Amino acid sequence: MDSIPKIEHTSRCRFPSTRIVDGCYADNLGTAMLVGELQKKHPGTTLRVMAVEANIRPRDCSKGASNGCFHGIATNLGRLFANSPFATHVQVGKFTTLAVSPQIFGEVLTPRMGECGGKLAGTDLTYMAGEFTTVENKHFGVTPGTKVQLLALNLNSPLDDIPELSSIDQYGSLAEAAYEATAALAAKCLGDAHCGCA
Asked: How confident is the model at residue 66 (pLDDT cuts 50, 70, 90)?
């Protein structure tokens, strides 16, 4: 058997090779790819997209936005906007690697916009609804000038993205709440020009 070549820790792995590490982090929710595909199927029309942002939020947010307590879509969907800090790289835990920019919208995303729809009654869930315009991103097949009505549900959950058996019931409750909120928001907002808040 041939020996596996040794990779020096100083080696710089460039796109597209970096995507093999964890490709989801360049477009974690597949939203940029979805918009590109919808543009091909429905050219010249306004697109309607709904996404769920599984952002993690610490249990203790008494200090406000510090300590990772920012509500809203900055975690994944925020990468699609003009002011994303991830234009040339992605960070996975303590690991940083080069990647292509996932930006597909020309607008700047602000913290207020990220949860402008407010909190859903009886939950920690917030949402954003707005219309944004695409910019070209050849990596994801996105062409410029398309209006996209984006409806985003933010989970704002303290639960880790890797479930533990001791808290499995909490994940079930969160999934149920997200399902009910998604159905309600879709019925209320998709196709409703007055629902937008961003």
From this structure: very low
As to burial, measured by CB atoms within 10 angstroms (0-12 exposed, 13-18 middle, 19+ buried), residue 150 is buried
**What is the rounded distance in angstroms from the CA atom of residue 38 to the CA atom of residue 172?**
31
* DSSP labels, the chain: -PPPPP--TT----TTTTHHHHGGGGSTTSHHHHHHHHHHHSTTS-EEEEEEE--B--S--TTTTTTT---STTTTGGGGSTT-S-SSEEEETTEEEE------B-SPP-HHHHTTT-BPTTSS-EEEEEEEEB--BGGGTB-TT-EEEEEEEE--B-S-SS--GGGHHHHHHHHHHHHHHHHHHHHHHTT-TTS---
Return the pLDDT at 156. Answer: 79
- pTM here is 0.76
118-128 per-position pLDDT tens digit: 777 777 788 88
